[in-house]
Specification:
By secondary structure, the chain is an alpha/beta fold. It has one domain (4-302): Metal-dependent hydrolases (TIM Barrel), CATH 3.20.20.140. 39% of the residues lie in helices and 13% in strands. The protein has helices at 43-55, 73-83, 96-103, 108-120, 144-160, 174-183, 202-210, 228-240, 272-283, 288-295, 297-302, and strands spanning 4-6, 9-11, 19-23, 60-63, 86-92, 132-136, 164-167, 191-193, 214-217, 247-249. The strands form 2 sheets. The protein has an 8-stranded parallel sheet with strand order 3-4-5-6-7-8-9-10. It has a two-stranded antiparallel sheet with strand order 1-2. Helix 1 (43-55) crosses helix 2, helix 3 packs across helix 5 and helix 5 packs across helix 6. The longest helix is centred in the middle third of the chain and has 17 residues, at 144-160. The chain is globular. Bound molecules: zinc ion.
């Protein structure tokens, strides 16, 4: 019996509704990063932003903050209960710069055991269970620490069926990530490769899609990296080639300045995709059923735990 594991417990896939596949609600990044805009520490701001998301039609989101970036499962549970938005949290790790101190001395088996425990039993003593597995690589390389995390993520996936959702640095190493996971027995259909809109190259996106993996177009609204008009062109081209069911949308709004709810001066916020980006996509000719499928059917398919 497949189910979806939120911070408040399991739900049926049909209850998921409109879902963003890669966001952040509460983060406590290490002080070494120095940039305080990255520290999203207000539960009140998160609840406010999520209530706007709900008003815009949003029902669920995947909170991709892992332990090495200051994951806060109890805060997520409180915010989920307060707003009624389904929140999934993640086990796993970020790129080398962040994960190395935590994973360098550990074995793949030990890392996998922790991931499986966080999905099936709970995170530390909180009782909150993770619903997805995160692994990450660095710019143009997968370091030894990262490779261990990928191999552990594969084992955790094989034990639980949880989706593996990755971080790529500027979109690089997507094919290598899929290949590494595949070498450990993971079906590419159970992988979501993140941040591909940092590498806005149709040929590259097609190559990733041809493996069977899913593509995270998850920097929507960050026009300093890429104009959304270009994201839309690429999405339309991928849909025309038959890859609509492999595209996952999100904003990855991991700065206080990206949320109006922090009062730091604007930002797209969690309503941007629903209120601005989707109407724009429809105006450019994408049919409403395809738009709906990207936000509802695809997340419901990917987030099902097959074996836990
Ligand atoms: Zn992220």
């Amino acid at each position: 019996m497949s189910k979806i594991r939120t911070v408040l417990g399991d739900i049926e896939p049909t209850m998921l509704g409109v879902t963003y596949m890669h966001e952040h609600l509460i983060t406590h990044p290490p002080a070494s990063l120095l940039d305080r805009d990255l520290a999203m520490e207000s539960r009140a701001a998160a609840a406010r932003e999520l209530s706007h998301f709900h008003l815009a039609g949003g029902r669920s989101l995947v909170e991709m903050t892992p332990r090495d970036y200051g994951r806060d499962p109890l805060a997520l549970r409180e915010i989920g209960a307060a707003t009624g938005v389904h929140i999934l949290c993640t086990t796993g790790w970020l790129k080398d710069k962040l994960c190395r101190p935590w994973v360098a001395e550990r074995t793949v088996a030990d890392l996998a055991d922790e991931m499986i425990r966080e999905i099936t039993v709970g995170i530390d003593e909180t009782g909150v269970r993770a619903g997805v597995v995160k692994a990450a690589s660095s710019l143009n390389t997968i370091t030894p620490a990262e490779e261990k995390v990928f191999r552990a993520a594969a084992r955790a996936h094989l034990a639980t069926g949880a989706l593996i959702s990755t971080h790529t640095e500027m979109g690089t190493m997507a094919l290598e990530q899929v290949e590494l996971l595949r070498s450990e027995g993971v079906a590419p259909e159970r992988i979501l490769v993140g941040h591909l809109d940092h590498k806005p190259d149709l040929e590259y996106w097609r190559a990733v899609a041809q493996t069977g993996a899913n593509l995270g177009i998850d920097q929507i609204g960050k026009e300093k990296y890429l104009p959304d008009s270009r994201r839309i062109e690429l999405i339309l081209a991928m849909v025309a080639e038959g890859y609509a069911a492999q595209l996952c949308l999100a904003g990855d709004l991991a700065r206080t300045s990206y949320w109006p709810s922090y009062g730091t001066g604007g930002g797209p916020g969690l309503t941007y995709i629903l209120w601005r980006f989707l109407p724009w996509l429809r105006e450019r000719g994408l049919d409403p059923q395809t738009v709906e499928a990207m936000l509802v059917a695809t997340p419901a398919r990917l987030l099902q735990l097959e074996r836990a």
